[in-house]
């Protein structure tokens, strides 16, 4: 997953539950994280910039240490904040977590955890407003607002709740006119705008 355009970084969720963050720094000529000596040779010279490892971070969350692959739907938000979900096994529901990178702790510190009454199937960021659309297994769409760390039902300008009639495997958020809308595409290529 990657942050908004122009930030020049990539983050990788690894099998052990840690997050590796890479950035492409212009002008950096030597990268110690990339090995270019495959098959015993050293004659390969890259013709492009290679990413530089910024750090490997643990996710500071109680339930994630024993089940690292329980972390799902990672979104990299501006200002090095992350939004991701875990599954609550005891109640058939999901938990939405909002955290940030702490360089001194070498970890992603969770600021807020919000329980959700259904499974979260996907999340999409509107890069112009930083609002996140969260799709539930019921078809309901919720809006996460990072500034207030609140999770609300997504509503149209007319005040109607947004709900997809069928689960959408692909989802995006954009503005059409002066309304922020949720776009959904099913696996059979049915296209929905605000449900």
UniProtKB/TrEMBL annotation:
A molecular-function term among this protein's GO annotations: tRNA binding
A GO CC term attached to the entry: elongator holoenzyme complex
PANTHER family recorded: ELONGATOR COMPLEX PROTEIN 1
Every ELP1 N-terminal second beta-propeller domain range: 10-195
InterPro entries reported for this sequence: Beta-prop_ELP1_2nd, Elp1
GO biological process: tRNA wobble base 5-methoxycarbonylmethyl-2-thiouridinylation
Pfam families for this protein: Beta-prop_ELP1_2nd
Designated name of the protein: ELP1 N-terminal second beta-propeller domain-containing protein
């Amino acid at each position: 997953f990657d942050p908004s355009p122009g930030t020049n970084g990539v983050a990788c969720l690894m099998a052990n539950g840690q997050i590796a963050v890479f950035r492409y720094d212009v002008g950096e000529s030597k990268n110690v994280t990339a090995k270019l000596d495959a098959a015993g040779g050293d004659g390969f010279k890259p013709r492009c910039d290679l990413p530089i490892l910024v750090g490997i971070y643990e996710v500071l969350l109680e339930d994630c240490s024993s089940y690292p692959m329980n972390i799902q739907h990672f979104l990299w938000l501006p200002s090095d904040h992350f939004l991701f979900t875990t599954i609550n096994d005891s109640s058939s529901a999901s938990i939405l977590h909002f955290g940030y990178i702490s360089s001194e702790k070498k970890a992603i510190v969770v600021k807020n955890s919000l329980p959700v009454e259904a499974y979260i199937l996907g999340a999409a960021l509107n890069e112009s407003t930083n609002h996140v659309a969260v799709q539930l297994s019921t078809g309901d769409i919720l809006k996460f607002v990072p500034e207030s760390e609140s999770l609300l039902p997504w509503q149209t300008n007319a005040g109607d709740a947004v709900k997809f009639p069928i689960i959408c495997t692909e989802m995006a958020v954009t503005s059409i006119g002066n309304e922020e809308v949720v776009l959904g595409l099913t696996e059979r290529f049915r296209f929905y705008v605000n449900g």
